[in-house]
Amino acid sequence: xxxxxxxxxxxxxxxxELRPNxxxxxxxxxxxxxxxWAYLLWLLVAVGFLSAVAPTARARAASxxxxxxxxxxxxAWGLGAASTALLVDQTAVARVSLGSGVWVLLxxxxxxxxxxGEERRRKLLRWAGPLVLVAGAVIAAFVWGGLDRISLAREFxxxxxxFWSLLGGHLAMSGAGLGFGLLLGVPLGLWxxxxxxxxxxxxxxxxxxxxxxxxxxxxxxIAPLAxxxxxxxxxxxxxxxxxxxxxxxxxxxxxxxxPIVRNTYVGLAEVEPAVIDAGRGMGMSSWQLLxxxxxxxxxxxxxxxVRTAAVLLIGITTLTVFAGARNLGIxxxxxxxQFAPDLILLGALPVIALAVIADVALSALGRxxxxxxxxx
Amino acid sequence: MSSRRRINLELVxxxxxxxxxxxxxxxxxxxxxxxxFPAQPMVLMPRDTLAAFVAQHLALVGVSSAVTIVIGIPxxxxxxxxxxxxxxxxxxxxxxxxxxxxPIAVLALAMPVLGFGFWPTVMALSIYGLFPVVGSAIAxxxxxxxxxxxxxxxxxxxxxxxxxxxxLPLAARVIVSGVRTSVAINIGTATVGAAIGTGGLGVxxxxxxxxxxxxxxxxxxxxxxxLAVLADAVLxxxxxxxxxxxxxxxx
Amino acid sequence: xxxxxxxxxxxxxxxxxDSLSLEIAEGEVCVLIGPSGCGKTTTLRMINRLIEPTSGHxxxxxxxxxxxxxxxxxxxxxxxxxxxxxxxxxxVAGNICVVPRLLGWEKSRMVxxxxxxxxxxxxxxxxxxxxxxxxxxxxxxxxVGVARALAADPPVLLxxxxxxxxxxxxxxxxxxxxxxxxxxxKKTVIFVTHDIDEAIRLADKIAIMRDGKLQQFDxxxxxxxxxANKFVHDFVGADRALKRLVRVRVEDVMRSPATVLxxxxxxxxxxxxxxxxxxxxxxxxxxxxxxxDTLGLDEGSVPEAALTRVVPADASVRPxxxxxxxxxxxxxxxxxxxxxxxxxxxxxxxVTFAAVEDAxxxxxxxxxxxxxEGAA
Lengths: 376, 251, 376
Known about the structure:
The complex is a heterotrimer of chains A (376), B (251) and C (376).
Chain A lengths: L1 H10 L4 E4 L7 E3 L6 H18 L3 H30 L8 E4 L1 H17 L7 H20 L7 H44 L1 H16 L2 H18 L1 H5 L7 H25 L3 H9 L4 H31 L12 H10 L2 H28 L8
Antiparallel strand pairs in A: 1-2, 1-3
Chain B lengths: L1 H23 L1 H11 L13 H31 L4 H16 L2 H12 L3 H25 L3 H9 L4 H34 L9 H9 L3 H37 L1
Helix pairs in contact in B: 1-10, 3-4, 3-6, 3-8, 4-6, 5-6, 6-8, 7-8, 8-10, 9-10
Chain C lengths: L1 E10 L2 E11 L4 E5 L6 H8 L7 E6 L2 E2 L5 H6 L1 E5 L10 H5 L1 H5 L4 H14 L4 H4 L9 H13 L5 E5 L7 H18 L2 E6 L2 H7 L2 E6 L2 E6 L1 H6 L4 H7 L3 H7 L3 H4 L5 E4 L15 E5 L5 E6 L13 E3 L2 H4 E2 L5 H11 L3 E5 L5 E6 H10 L14
Parallel strand pairs in C: 3-8, 3-9, 6-7, 7-8, 11-12, 15-16
Antiparallel strand pairs in C: 1-2, 1-4, 4-5, 9-10, 12-13, 13-14, 16-17
């Protein structure tokens, strides 16, 4: 199936688009623009088809994995070759941007890669070697293959200095929201296990907050904060005003609460009553019980909540730019405002990458925190 | 228990009616926002009426959710059948990975690939909405106890009878909760759609923020929040309704 | 050792325990028994202050337990519950060391203690030390639970239906092992159960409770022979004579084995004094291998065909088994007598049906573990 998708990407859809400048649409070119690399792409798609008909499971897995990794490398070099070829005799502002075929080809490649390996998250280490190889080949395509001439790379080089500060701002904002969410959420979850009313209120309120659209929540926070900042100059100096980091940070913290509170609560509540009874009966104080028994057992679920919250926040952080924060959202929404696809990509792709990295890293952390005795 | 549900149902219906009246009462909003922001010369965004913003929002969410359900549930069922089994791990991997993509980033990416406007946005929302629906359809169906299926087979049910009379009723609660998640995400992401020119309640919010008019912001934010909570409550009622059928089927 | 003075515990209008007074001597096993809701578990949990009495006083070692911090008190009282409550994230050794760690023992002392305790409860330290609770069977987990309760060598053990969740076969094994450990360690034990057979088997004193009130507090023999009221009479049940057998150990009534034939190869019949018809056949090292019917056999060699081989574990009882075990074995095999062997299958003696009948009718004559004089 992956091979079919990849085939559609290489044949039917445009490979690259040559535009006179970064904002206006241009002419589409097929994969033939990549010159000899086009043949390699074809060949690798053919190898992908082998994965459907190969006699042994081993051969199927090998061919789909090989074509998956190979396609990424060939794509990087092919795009570089195509942009180098097309940009000859063009003005300095002309751009070669990715056609829809590239995205479809990438989707097909991802499918091929997945069907080759069994489980994405479990086998991270086994993937590390090939991943380094592929990353190296792609970087080489930037340096020697002309991939730096593709418009996304050009967009990046134009904005390189602000890009890194926006990325930093993004991480800081999401991280701060997550940190505050943890500081508030874990004690709230703990309190919820001790008190029925607290449980009903916290789980109910955080649940409603989670349903409210993030942009609307941001809007609802800005108006009162603006009023507060006007009324109390001291708070205003501290950054509490309608526009700025404060409303965004509050909104992010509120969003982080539900997964963290809920998972803390569930994790602690799921500790067997007999275990608690035994611990108390042996003379553990409630603190000892909490630190030595309840938290170690609840930790994997709490980390799982943090993972959910982190992935959520990395996306929502982009919206805080409407309240004046500076992060990758600026690139996305400026790009949408200017109809500049490359700018949008420059913002959106790193956001997706951050979310996936956070997901993988926190999943691994959750497994590391799972006590051996309770591992499945 | 059932009388309590009926009360909840009536409450939700009442809330829906109140919401419908509220968004059509343009004058009410004007006087409310003017009372909060007396200094603001314009308190309602002139581009459209509030009812129109809500209608655009509902259209976006309604169409994309419908597409999501019509495609997502059968897809989830398909990969749990013997014929679709070979795609199961692929689809699960895709839904897992897809759900880690921030919806806003996906919406933004849809623009360079699909273009601007209503239909590209619907398409982006539909694709993103698929992840929770497909995931929950698979999870719900696979959670049906093996013994129940054996019993159904032993009683002579055909595969389609097993699906319609046993698996789907038992999986209904989980599937509806996936739809609920998907709709909540759609309502939220659709507000951002205003930045791609699709209209909806995001227009006054984003517009208000751009021109520093907090009245506009509230004009969009309050109804958007109400709409989201209301939709969640309605789907929660449906979830509760199919849950009763669920427990009745297991006993 | 432990004295309950006029203890009452109320929950709202309900009285769970109603002015209960008990005195338990050092080294005694006191079983609290009664139908569910009779207040037996509440009473037990008041002794380690998991529940506070509404009124009344409890003394352990002549000290009012309210004068001690609850945690300190509990560390001195071993606690075993039906659901065991092993900590799933700790190994067997980690579980056993919970209280020693709370008490700040040195590491080497804890390591030694773990091995010592595992041996005591019949588990191989090398095989079990590093296992996690989920890797244990129900019976093994309960042994670890007992070991954990004994870890800091508390003078008192509180056991709340410790063998209630184990299957009947394992329960009997655990009971006889508990009896063995108790003979060795002489702890003061408060043991809650709803199983009258278990109570009769293990108790030095039985406290029968109903609706929070004490019905009778006496030795098992007295409870069997002279029930204080109709409730006790009915609770003990009609098969009083059979129950009495539970109190008599095999070693107290066994006689030296009938005729013993020496060596499987040299089956030379040695005619014993009583000239019994059935003779046990043992290896030179004394291990039981079967029996012969001597009727119609000449003195001299015994043909191999006359030998009935047996699996010793199935066709014999142990010296510390109860007479009821012996009786049920006999009935199950259809024999009028049964061999008594030790752990290594070495023949020690035999119990005859006549001896069982004597114990049933004569009552107290053979009863072991009689409480010390004046303890009533």
